[in-house]
Amino acid sequence: VSTQSTGSSGINAEYGTEQWTKTSNLLQLFVSIQSLVLNSTPYYNEAGFNKYKETQSGEVNAKLYNEMIIFKILEHVSSMYTNSHEAFRQEITSYFKCGDYTN
Description:
The chain is mainly alpha-helical and about 100 residues long. It has helices at about 25-35, 55-80, 85-100, and strands at about 10, 15-20. The chain has a two-stranded antiparallel ribbon with strand order 1-2. Strand 1 and strand 2 (about 15-20) form a beta hairpin.
């Protein structure tokens, strides 16, 4: 989700990204998250990294990026578990006990 400055068109010409304004809505946010973040190689969505697709260094960096994301998610879930209400801790425990992490 870009916060880069754009022209009056609302599109950042350098990256082809949409500018968020006071008229932006949740649908725009959810579509951006779905298309830019929820994919198998979010590394290439970082500004300027798309040019490394299909290169050896790009593949290595994309894999390391994904591993870092997994680590950060687990770190965050652990923190939420430790610092949350009992009902939320029960939900987290239930989720990890089921073993189906695709949902």
